[in-house]
Structures are given as C-alpha cells and as structure tokens.
Amino acid sequence: MASSAALICETEAWKDLKGHVEDIKKTHLRDLMSDAHRCESMMLEFEGLLLDYSRQRATVETVDKLLNLAKAAQLSEKISRMFNGEHINSTENRSVLHVALRAPKDAVIKADGKNVVPEVWNVLDKIKDFSEKIRSGSWVGATGKPLKDVIAIGIGGSFLGPLFVHTALQTDPEAAECAKGRQLRFLANIDPVDVARNTNGLNPETTLVVVVSKTFTTAETMLNARTLREWITTALGAPAVAKHMVAVSTNLALVEKFGIDPNNTFAFWDWVGGRYSVCSAVGVLPLSLQYGFSVVEKFLKGASSIDQHFQSTPFEKNVPVLLGLLSVWNVSFLGYPARAILPYSQALEKFAPHIQQVSMESNGKGVSIDGLPLPFETGEIDFGEPGTNGQHSFYQLIHQGRVIPCDFIGTVKSQQPVYLEGEVVSNHDELMSNFFAQPDALAYGKTPEQLQKENVSENLIPHKTFTGNRPSLSLLLPELSAYNVGQLLAIYEHRVAVQGFVWGINSFDQWGVELGKVLATQVRKQLHGSRTQGAALEGFNYSTTTLLKRYLETSSEPKM
Ligand code: F6P
Question: Where are the transmembrane segments (predicted)?
C-alpha cells in the first residue's frame, strides 16, 4: 500500500499498468470489439442507465489492474473519509460534503461532529416556502406586481451548474409546464454587454434578482450586483431592494452589508465547494423559482441515488469509480490529454461547460496533496458540444487527427418527440442513429483495403483512411427527467473525485485562479488613477504598458 506521503506513481500497481501499456499498444479496438465476453463484462446498468465502456482501449486485465491501482491509492478509504466529513480539502482545512446537500431528511452526515442534514433541510424548506410565495404571487414587487422573471447573478460554480440544469429542464414536459409564464436568466460576465443582454426586455417591477456568491467577494459578481441594484433603485427607489433582491451565500455578514435583508438570504456552508454547489441554494433557489421545488427535489433525489451507489457498490460495478479509473488510464498511461463530452441531446448543451469547471478546476494540479511536485500530468482538457452539431465542427480532428477519448451521452426517450409522416425515422431516431454510429466509426475506422474494394482512386486512399482504434464510452439514459439530470451530475462529480483520489491530489481547492485576480487588482488601480488623475503608467512590463497605453488613449469609456 502507498504510504500517505508517497506518490502513486511509485507503487507497484502504477508500474504494472505502465508495463501493460505495451500489451495494449499491440491491440486494435476492431479486434477487442469482436470478443463478446469482454464486451459483456464492460457493460454496467444502474436504474436503467446503461454504461458501455467496451470501446475503451482496455482489456479485462486492464480493468483488474486499474482496480489494483484503486487499492494502492486507498480509494475506498478516501471515499469513506469524504462521506465521513473529514477535512480532506486539507489546504483549506475543510470537509467536502456536497453529498449532504441531497441526502434524505433522515440521513446523518457529520461535519466536525455535527449532523449537517437538518441545516441543509432548513434551507431547502425555506427555499420551498419562498419560491412558492413568489410563484403564487403572494410575494409581490414594490409596485404590487408579481415577480415572474428572475436574474441570477453569479460566476463559475455559482453559475455553470445552475445554467446546465436549467438548460436541461427547459424542454422537459413536466418542468416546462411548471415554468409557464416565467423566465430565468443568468448574468455571469462582468462584460457590461452581459448586463444589457440580461436586462433587455425585462421590467424591474416584475423582476427578482438573486445574487449568488459563496464568498460574496468575487469582483465580477459584486459589480454586477451593484449594477442591477442601480437598475432596480433607479426605476423603483431604494426601498425596492428589499422586495427585488435576495442572496445565496456562505458569507451572511457581507450580504447584509450589501443591503440585502438577512431574512431573504439563503445560506450554504464552507464544506460545499463552489463547483460542487449546484445542489445547494446556489442552484436550488433559482431553479425552484423557475420550476417549483417539487421538480428540483426530483433532481436532488437523482443525485442522491448516485451518491448511495458510489458509496456502497463494489468498484467493479461502480459507475463513477470505473469512469474515474478509465480516465486515469487514458490520461496517465495512454497519454491522451483531452476528453470530449458529446451529449446527443440539445438539452445537455451546457453540460460540457459545467464539467469543464468541475473537472479542470478540480484536477488541474501540479503537486500532490502533500505538496510534492508531480512527475506526471493530472486533469484532462475537457471540451464538448451536443451531437450532431459537433460532428459538423471538430469531429474531423477526432476521427483523423488527434486521439481524443469521447464520452457519448444519449437518451432512449426524447423530451420533445417529433415524427413527420413519410419520414424514414422519427427526429429522435435520426439523432440517435448518429449516437450509435460515431463510436464504431472511431473504434473501427476504415482501412486502405476496404477503400480499394470500393474502387476509391489511389491518390485519395490516404485521405479517406481512418486509423480507428480511438476510444470512447457510451452512456445511455432512459430519459432526461429532472431525476436523470441529477444522476448525470453526480456521476461526473464523483468521477472527478475518483481521478483526484487516485492521482493523490487535492481536487477540492483552486489556488490556480488566484494570481490572475491579484494582477487584475493592480491594473484596476492603474486604470482608476490614469482616468481620474492622469497618473502615468507604472510597474508594468513593456508589453502590458503598450497595450494599456493604447487602451487608455483610444477608449471612450463613460466619464468617471
Ligand atoms: O475564481 C474561481 C472561483 O473561486 C470558483 O471556484 C468559484 O466557483 C467562483 O470563483 C465564484 O466564486 P463565488 O461563488 O465565491 O462568487
């Protein structure tokens, strides 16, 4: 077993996998896929959700060796430590308990010796009550009109998760019915254009602004919050803030200082990481305002079902564990640095951007949890677009250029089925034909011999050859209900944790985002000095000085 200070790459299990790469290099997915026994062992089902990882460049032996790696990394112990509320986020001295956010009311999950589930449910009950008041019109705005539109201000984890879930639910028939006559918008970027776009067509009289920030110090969110406070007070007067602005934060003192009534504040806790906060008030409040609490509760239940599966299922049948181990295999052993997330579902169009933060902010680290420099790379470069749109964009590179392991995500049932009489298949079948075809195109490719048989002219054969042997996995969900959306979220959250646990890093801090923020403060100070007192540019290198000079000399910013 690895001692807590040792790096995982020093273990026998890691070295064994390194050696095993040579065996895998001799295989081709074309041949691996013809072994039905192997393929059968690479299918997993949980509550109607089917995971097929038979198109990974892996054999049954590879999976065994990865399970040995999990043992060497003490994965089981690390998962237990997370669920037990130990301070596994050691650089911030915090527990990591997003699982408590969706735990049933009678569950017991402790942080620092205290069961946190009752506190979680206090806030959920408060959200239920508040969102019902807003939705029913019993809480009205300053001029007596019901608040039918919501702008949620927040960035990063205070934005991407809620946006993903909102986008996923928008066309779900049950959720859509509950959202009739209401709008939910998200203001994230400090670019004033984002303010203009999000307020466009909205009336302050009928708008509720939700300021979402774990710290309540994030520069972009706070300036956007002040900008919308101005938008409201200019139209309705200062007292209107009490009726039109509420907040979600862990920093209740700063919320009050900002001028939002503490009664209209929805708390969460420092044991919830920003990118893991969609199941806290961060997501639950705006989503309940839009869809009603009962829809959002189904989403929480879906996430909870995966938490239980993750915590209690043996690793060889554990969806997030296997996915995490396979990602480690692809990144650290096969040397594939990127991953494409390809949902064949327009409703999942914001899934890849959310997972980008969950995965890249969590696992893009250069040192172990003990601070030792890592002699191997961690994390992966995540990107993605819904199919089939992506097929007409970047799939060329995936098929014939670089090897990028792909996650194909599809649903059996469409949220919005359409069949036109006379068409060969329904519109969803058309979409899903691509979902089923693409993984095989990547795995099998097309050989020069096949092309010759098709009488392709000699000069085009190299161009039309597909090497194949490109790994992917397929996740087929029964449908995209609120429950399944919750499951999908939790699968990826835990997968990322598994990767981090195996790599031996801290997946729950994010020091890498700090330096840029500090340098922006220096620029902000300079811009203020130059614009108000004509202060000379000072303390920047040649490049930044030149760019700033051009910006100051030619910009037409409003007078300060
Ligand atoms: O800058 C990165 C970050 O700290 C993320 O981790 C976080 O999700 C985001 O900023 C927003 O932070 P907050 O919710 O505190 O405004």
Answer: none
* Under 8 Å between Cβ of 343 and 410: yes
Beta bridge partners of 382: 339
Residue nearest to atom 8 of ligand 1 (CA): 157
Mean pLDDT computed over every residue of the chain: 97
Tell me if 409 sits within 8 A of 475, measured CB to CB: yes
Q: Quick one: which atom of ligand 1 is closest to the CA of 275?
A: 8
Tell which phi-psi region holds residue 164, choosing left (phi > 0), alpha (psi between -120 and 50) or beta: alpha
CB 300 within 8 A of CB 486: yes
Q: Is the CB of 354 under 6 A from ligand 1?
A: no
Q: How far apart are CA 148 and CA 27, in angstroms?
A: 58
213 lines ligand 1 (CB under 6 A): yes
Tell me if 221 CB under 6 Å of ligand 1: yes
> 493 C-alpha to center of ligand 1: Å?
17
Three-class secondary structure assignment of 328-345: HHHHHHCCCCEEEEEECC
pLDDT, one tens digit per residue, over 501-552 is 999 999 999 999 999 999 999 999 999 999 999 999 999 999 999 999 999 9
- Strand-pairing partners, residue 149, are 183, 207
Q: What is the pLDDT, as a whole number, of residue 560?
A: 76
- Would you say the CB of residue 275 lies under 6 angstroms from ligand 1? yes
**What pTM did the predictor assign?**
0.97
- Nearest CA owner, ligand 1 atom 10: 156
Q: Which value, in Å, is the radius of gyration of the alpha carbons in the chain?
A: 25
* Tokens encoding 516: 């840029």
